[in-house]
Write a structure and sequence with these properties.
The chain has 132 residues and is mainly α. It has one domain. 98% of the residues lie in helices and 0% in strands. The chain has 2 helices and no strands. The chain has helices spanning 2-110, 112-131. The radius of gyration is 51 Å and the shape is rod-shaped.
Length: 132
């Protein structure tokens, strides 16, 4: 009877341990499944996040490119305006120079002695300044 008592108790212990081991294995399997689904969810989030970042980067690149083109166009327009203004100023100076040259030649033709006197006075003045 002693054998029978220990034997049934031993079977009962083994069955209880076996049941607990099976329950632990089921919990481990459930945890593995949950971890796998969490990993998939994180991977999907990372993928969608990376996709969003790529979209934003493309949009920023397009916006920067458009801004650069606009800036280039404005700069080219400003440069053309500056060149045109410079050409106008140059043409004005050339016209003034021509007019001044014409007037000087006319004054020399009209008043040759006065021109000679002014040239001599300028020469004496320059010589006096250089002597000092």
């Amino acid at each position: 009877m002693a054998n029978g008592l220990f034997s049934s108790r031993s079977k009962s212990l083994r069955n209880g341990i076996h049941d607990e081991a099976q329950a632990v294995e089921e919990q481990i399997a459930d945890l593995r499944a949950e971890i796998a689904s969490l990993a998939k969810l994180l991977a999907d989030d990372a993928s969608s996040g990376a996709s969003g970042i790529r979209k934003k980067a493309r949009a920023a690149r397009v916006q920067a490119s458009e801004a650069a083109h606009d800036l280039k166009d404005r700069a080219e327009g400003d440069i053309r305006d500056m060149i045109a203004a410079g050409e106008d100023i140059l043409a004005d100076f050339q016209e003034r120079y021509r007019d001044s040259g014409r007037r000087a030649r006319k004054a020399v033709k009209d008043h040759p002695l006065a021109t000679l006197g002014v040239a001599a006075a300028a020469g004496f003045l320059i010589a006096a300044l250089l002597r000092r």
